[in-house]
Amino acid sequence: MPLRSAVAALLIATFASAASAQTQTAQPAQAQPTPTLKARTQLVIVDVTVTDAHQNPVHNLKASDFVVLEDNVSQPLKAFEEHSAPSAPVKLGQLPPMPPGVFTNFSPIPPNSALNIVLLDTLNTPMKDQSYVRDQFKQYLKNAPPGARIAIFGLATHLYLLQGFTSDPEILKAAVDRKGNLKSSPLLDDPVGSGNQPPSLSETLSDAMGNDPTAATAIANLQQFEAEQASFQLQLRARYTLDALNQLARYLSGLPGRKNLIWFSGSFPISILPDGDLQNPFAVVADSEQEFRETTNLLSLSQVAVYPVDARGLMTSPTFSAANSGSKYARNPTNFGKDEAKFFQQTADEHGTMLQMAEETGGHAFINTNGLTQAVAKAIDSGSNYYTIAYSPASTKWDGRFRKIQIRLAQQGFTLSYRRGYYAEDPDKQVQRDHVASTTLPGAPAPFDAMRTAMLRGAPDPTQIIFKAHIIPTTSTTEDTLAPNNTLGPAGAKIKPPYRRYNIDYAADPRPMRFAVSPQGTYEDQIQFIVFVYDQDGQIVNSTGSEINASVPPATFTAMLRSGMRFHQQVSVPAKGDYYLRIGVHDMAGDHVGAIEVPIASVRNLPPADAPAPALTKPATPQGK
User: Fold this and answer.
1) 289-301 and 216-253 helices cross at what angle (nearest 10)?
2) Taking Cα atoms as reference points, which of 207, 196, 203 lies closest to residue 321?
3) 304, 302, 183, 295: which is closest to 241 by C-alpha?
4) Which residues pair with 82 in a beta bridge?
5) For residue range 517-526, what is the model confidence (pLDDT) as tens digits?
6) Is the separation of the CB atoms in 260 and 384 below 8 Å?
7) Which residues of 268-293 are buried (b: 16+ CB within 10 A; e: fewer)?
8) For residue 393, what is the DSSP state?
9) Distance between CA 567 and CA 546 in Å, rounded?
10) DSSP code at position 34
């Protein structure tokens, strides 16, 4: 049975009772024969788009037409498939209705077709350009090809979902037009995009003091401070953006096949170079190359091809804008040349980042064009007609080094787009977290953590670990104390009792988890089960979490593969008001995660666990009555 079909069968199966909350080892159903261990084979999967001289997709190529090289060594193909855009709307397979109170992060998707994700980046894009992007995208939807499934995400200081996958243009238009989608970035110098920025404090002071030599030091100190603040804002933007892309890659990793990420962004530099005009040129230097590498590698492993689109379109230097007073150029003509050079260098760096991300993931960057409608159409068409190639690398030396992939065709005159390589990280290595110095800056977000982002209110449901959860009230009464192992959050401390207690029973698919076989033959791993209670404003009210050290005998492990890993928790929720449960599972060895979000209103009125079971038949009427 295919892996995804097996997962679906697991989720559809009857939900059995879970182990107690105090259990420290997952207890599956019954023992089965000892499984046979097999050596793991690392498979490299590469999606390749092939276009002719007119940028039209090329079909009907065979595996024998392709030559694959890794570090200049030929690699025999293990698998080969051609994928074409559907000519008619594709119906999603549907899971049977879940019983009341049962929820899952499993998502049926159309087979053999690419998924398209539009990312509207408000963090790095002025509002003027955001509005243009939305107009252009709605123009595309008027003539969108049938069957193209699109999801829409937004990016502010965090990633959020605007619309799940659908091929209905009207639903997508409604999501784009939804009130509040246009957001002013708190980290852009010109968040509106008017081009009319007020003079900086250092420029104002310089104008006021004229040629007074006593003011030179004060002006230089102020320029240094402004430059360091601007550098810090750029670092925050880079961190937030990479965190969001990393999170999106994890969310998409559980969906099979190719995913095309069309990312509308105004700017995204990953490196800040020294500024020779400052007292301390190197104080502003920052580099997110390591995080960029990790993110692009994860996108590639998740079969996500990135199509960055510069939302600003064709640009001209702001030095020629009529909105500029030009006073600083009149005072010092050399400032004009410096600002021109800075603009072209910054633009080149931003476009370089877009081009690099597209190349490393097998996508294509659209820069210096106002035709954003055509850019979306080309990205979706190209990304929906592709070939999937898989091979097992001849080298099994996992040293973290970048391995270059080259794909060639026997025929000439075609253009190939594919990811150009990957970092040879050991697939069995325990995940390590290195905290870089830049993340300790005051106010900077924490280093990326898979579970932290998976548990954000309103975030996409990551599907690296598929699971379901059965949620019902524990009793019909309320209480003034929290359930065991519950901890109030900052928002919860302001809320007065009573609380309502809920049972949460898990059944998680253990196959994506990285169990290690001990010398005694048991299967061992560390698994986290975490629940956050959020209010409507996205503040944490309460939480509970358990970290289990699983040590499972072989026979029990075989049964667990069939019935799922079971666990039980209890969480307290304020009895009055609207709240949301964010429920997550984290395999700590493999750093794989799964999460779902459930509004408490959907389970509040279910029969509690202590309610008597309903009678299966109507009681017989006693004789004589």
Assistant:
1) 20
2) 196
3) 295
4) 387
5) 999 999 999 9
6) yes
7) bbbebeebeebeeeeebebebeebbe
8) -
9) 10
10) P
pTM passes above 0.85: no
Phi/psi of residue 104, each to 5°?
-145, 155
Chain centre distance of CA 105: 15
- Whether residue 6 has pLDDT greater than 50: no
User: In angstroms, rounded to a whole number, what is the distance separating the alpha carbons of residues 74 and 70?
Assistant: 6
Q: How far apart are CA 208 and CA 181, in angstroms?
A: 41
Cα–Cα dist 534/540, whole Å? 5
**Taking the chain, what is the end-to-end CA distance rounded to the nearest angstrom?**
58
Residue position matching structure tokens 């250092």: 202
Long-range CB pairs of 133-140, under 8 A, 24+ apart, other chains included: 133/264, 133/309, 133/311, 133/372, 134/176, 134/177, 134/181, 134/182, 136/372, 136/373, 136/376, 137/176, 137/264, 137/372, 137/373, 137/376, 138/173, 138/176, 138/177, 139/373, 140/373, 140/376, 140/377
Classify the C-alpha dihedral 592-596-597-598 as positive or negative.
Answer: negative
Task: Classify strands 77-83 and 540-552 as parallel, antiparallel or unpaired.
Answer: unpaired
- Residue 579 sits at the vertex; the CA angle it makes with 574 and 121, to the nearest 5 degrees, is 150
The whole-angstrom separation of Cα 354 and Cα 306 is 9
Looking at residue 198, what DSSP letter applies?
A: P
Instruction: For the beta carbon of residue 82, count every other beta carbon within 10 angstroms.
Output: 15
Closest CA to 361 of 427, 450, 422: 422
Which residue ranges make up each domain of the chain? 3-37+451-602, 44-84+386-423, 115-201+232-318+348-384
Q: Which two tokens stand for residue 132?
A: 């243009």
Which helix (H) or strand (E) segment is 387 a member of? strand 386-391
- Whether the Cβ atoms of residue 309 and residue 264 lie closer than 8 Å to each other: yes
Helix, strand, coil share of the chain (percent; to 5): 30, 25, 45
Task: Using alpha carbons, select from 4, 6, 7 the residue that is nearest to residue 110.
Answer: 4
**Average pLDDT, rounded, for the chain:** 78
Nearest to 101 by CA among 460, 505, 482: 505
Residue 606 has pLDDT above 50, yes or no: yes
CATH, domain range 115-201+232-318+348-384: 3.40.50.410
Q: The tokens of 18 are what?
A: 């879970």
Nearest to 87 by CA among 46, 55, 59: 59
Q: How many whole angstroms separate alpha carbon 12 and alpha carbon 19?
A: 20
Residue 405 scores a pLDDT above 70: yes
Compute the distance between CA of residue 95 and CA of residue 11 in angstroms, rounded to an integer. Answer: 9
Of the pLDDT bands very low, low, confident and very high (cuts 50, 70, 90), residue 22 is very low
pLDDT tens-digit map of 314-368? 766 555 555 555 555 555 555 656 666 666 666 777 788 888 889 889 999 998 8
Residues sharing a CB contact under 8 Å with residue 122, sequence separation 6 or more, in sequence order: 130, 154, 155, 156, 181, 182, 183, 184, 185
**What's the rounded Cα separation, in Å, for the pair 582 and 458?**
9
